[in-house]
Amino acid sequence: MIYTITLNPSIDYIVEIEELTLGGLNRIRNEVKLPGGKGINVSRILRELGTDSLATGFLGGFTGSFIEQSLEKLGIERRFIKVAGDTRINIKLKHGEETEINGPGPNITSEEADGLLALLAEIGQGDLVVLSGSAPPSLGSGFYGRLIEVCQAAGAEFVIDTTGDALKAALPSRPLLVKPNHHELAELFGTELKSMKETARYGRQLLELGAKHVLVSMAGEGALFLTPEGSYHATAPKGSVVNSVGAGDSMIGGFVGALAAGADLLTAFRTGVAAGSATAFAQDLATGAEIRALLEQVQIAPLPIDDEAAQGPRRKEEPSK
Fold first, then answer.
1. Is residue 249 flagged as an active site residue?
2. In this predicted model, what pLDDT tens digit does every residue of 32-51 receive, in sequence order?
């Protein structure tokens, strides 16, 4: 079974306006409300690809009820821990460039947090847990570590899609996959990545620090997939980008869904890139048909690595503090 954990879900309220007048009245041209959160997005993509998952995390209030009902309509199995506070609403304002206004999320009590850990006691060897997104501030910085300990004790693999300190702390625990984008990778090491070669070099440092596989998304430049055996570049399919929400989550959903269906790693990589691109070209998350339509456009080639990049820098570079 694949478990997706979203610690801080949201309603994604996407609004499009013709003109933005600060301090004045603005009228919405188009609007849509979607169940949001990175793990929830992964479950939605898995559903489109015909792979079952169990979505869990924390939900509360009328906003949490909306997400619960939306996932029920989509046929996604779910078991969220009910919390006293309201699940947040994140605003995605489309006027030229997209502007995001994200809420902090509800307060999570220690009893509610323990309820999620107890629910995960059922996972076992052969299961895969996807840990995605930020945690509500009330949970503290170490909660992902507690979830990872549960996975390790059960013999389950885990994928983690987060940034900063939470990602750094997870690497020694040998995640099956980490997926920073190129900006997050640069920030992690406190540097600027000026070429694909540099991106591969720093991505491979995540392997040295414990990740089993690394997927680096690079927007229009495609993506890199880094393994202990080699590095690979995938081209990005051609299309008009209309939606940045959920593209990275779709990439993980495509990758994990293909693996669950018995695909090899490079086929999973191709499916992930197709899923991420299909979502970027759509108003909402991609459908299974939209993902499959792009598969042939994703071309994968080994990335030449010079001796220094293959072996890593002479002095291992640690992520920035």
1. yes
2. 999 999 999 999 999 999 99
